Amino acid sequence: MTEDLVQRAHWGDLEGQNWAVLVRLSLEPDADELTSSAPSATPSARPAEDGPKWRPATGRDIKSRQEQEKDGRRFVESRGGRHVYTYEEPDTSAWKRKRVRQPDGTVAYRVIRPVFEGALEDLKRGTTPDGQRLDGLIVYDIDRLTRDNRHLEDAIEVVENFRRPIIDITGTLDLLTDNGRTVARLLVTVANKSSADTARRVRRKHRALQQAGIPTGSTRPFGYKDDKRTLEPKEAAALRKAVERVLTGASPRTIAADWNKQGITTVLGNRWSKETVKQVLRNPRICGYRSRKVREFNPETGTESVRVETVLDDDGKPVKGQWKPIISVADWKAVTEAIGRNPEPGDAYNARKYLGSGILRCDKNGCGGRLRAMKAPASRKKPEGFFYYTCPDKRSGYGCGGIRISGPDTDEALKMLVIAKYEQEAEEREAMAVPAEWSGEEELARIREDIADWTEQRNQRLVSKERFFAFLSKAEATERRLVKERNEWRRRMLLVQGKPVDLRSEWDNLDFVERRAYVEKTLLTVLVSPAVRPGGPVWNRLTPIYRDED
Fold first, then answer.
1. Nearest alpha-carbon partner for 372 in 348, 392, 351
2. What is the tens place of the pLDDT at every residue in 173-212?
3. Residue 429 burial (10 A CB sphere; 0-12, 13-18, 19+)
4. 407-431 and 512-522 helices cross at what angle (nearest 10)?
C-alpha cells in the first residue's frame, strides 16, 4: 500500500489509512502588544508551572490548537481514514531563526522546530512515537506547515522520495503533484516575506516606544510594580541601600547574600547571585533612563553576548523613561563605575570555610607559602572545632612547614584589622576635601566638540583620513580619561555624603560570605611570622598588607 499512498491521497481516498495531525500555534508579537498597557492574563488563565510557557493570545492565528486537531480528525475520518496521533507545537514560530551550532562546529541561523522535524522523521519510518502505523500527515493550511523554504523542501522530500503524503484542509497546500509543489514554493516565499514585513514593523514599533520612553516587556523590572512605572516600595528601598553599600565598599556578592537572607527574591522568585545584582545595578532604568538589550555575536568564538545600554535620542542624549527613577543619574554612574572598575576583590566567590584561607602567608625565611586551615588533633585536647593555620610541609612543594598559628585567634585578629581599616577610612572621608564642582567639565566638553568638528570635516573630505584617525585616537583616549576622572569625583562626593557601614556593630550579624567579602576587599595578604615564645599573642606575629598599599 505504501507505493500508492500519495496517489490515493491525491484522489481523496484515505480508506484504511492511519493519519497524524500537526497543529501549531504561533504567538509571535504584534505591534499592538508591545506597550505595557497590553492586557495581561489572570492567574487562573495560566497553566501549571510545569506546563508550556504562557503568552497572551493575539487573535492572529486562523485556528486554535484544539480546532486544528478537530478539523484534521474530521477531514481524515470523512474520507475513510483514521486519526492516530497529534503532533502539537505550542508557541512555535515557523519563521523566526535562532543561532545554532552545527555538527561541524560552525554557527548558523535556523528555524528551530523539533516537533515538526520529528514528525517528518516519523513519517519517513511510517511509525508514530507510540508505535502505530503512520501513512500520512495533515495540517490546517500551508501556514501551519511552514514559512521557511528549508523546511518546505524537507517536507517535499518526504512526499517525493519516501512517498508519504502531506496534505492540508483548506486546499492551499499541494505537495502531491509537480505543479502543486511549485505553487507551494511560491506561497511559502510570499508567507516568508509577510513574516519579514511584520518583523520589520515590530522593530520599528520597538524603536518608537524606546524613543518615547515607554516601558515594554512581559516581566516587571525589579523595583517596580506590574505597570512598570510605579515604584515597589520595598524593592526600591533595597536598591537604594544596595547602591549606598556598594559605594562605601560592599561587593555585589555581599548584596546578593544580604537580600537572600532577608527573603528578597528576583521578580521571578529566584535567589540572587553576584551577576543578577550587577545586572540590576547597571541597568540605566533605575535612574530613569530608557534602556534596551543589545545582542553581539563574536564570529571568532561563535558566542553571543547580551548587554544593556541607554537609548539615545536623535541629539545623542539619553531618553528619559515614563517612570519614576529609583536613584539619581549621578549615583547610577558612580555605582556602575565602581562595579566595572574593580569587580574582582571582595566578591568572595570561593568555597572557603575559614576567614583567613587564601589571605595568610608564611613570613619565614622568605617562604611566602599560603597557610592552610587544619583541625586540631584530638591528642591536643582542644575545644570542639578548634583549628590551626599552618604552612604546608616542604614535601608538598607549597611551603616550608615551619609556621602554625591559632585559627580562632587569627580570625579574631583579621576581624579587628578590617574593622580598624574601615573606621580609619570613615574618618578620612569625613575630613576629605572634595571640590563642589569637577574641574575637568570644560575640558571634557571641549574635547567632545573637537571630535564632532573633526568628524564633520572628515565627512566633507576637508581632512585626510590619516590626519583624522591620528587625531581621533588621541582625542578619544583623552575623553576616556576625563570620563573616568569625572566618575571617580562623583564616587568620592557620594562617599563623603553617604554613611559608611558600621562594621563594629554589624559584624556579628553578617554571614560568612559577607565577612569574607570584607576581608578580601580590605586585605591583600597578611604575613604570619614564627612564634617568639609559645602562647604569645597572635597580634605580634601578623603583618597586614592592605589593598590600597599594593
1. 392
2. 899 999 999 999 999 999 888 888 887 888 888 888 888 9
3. middle
4. 60
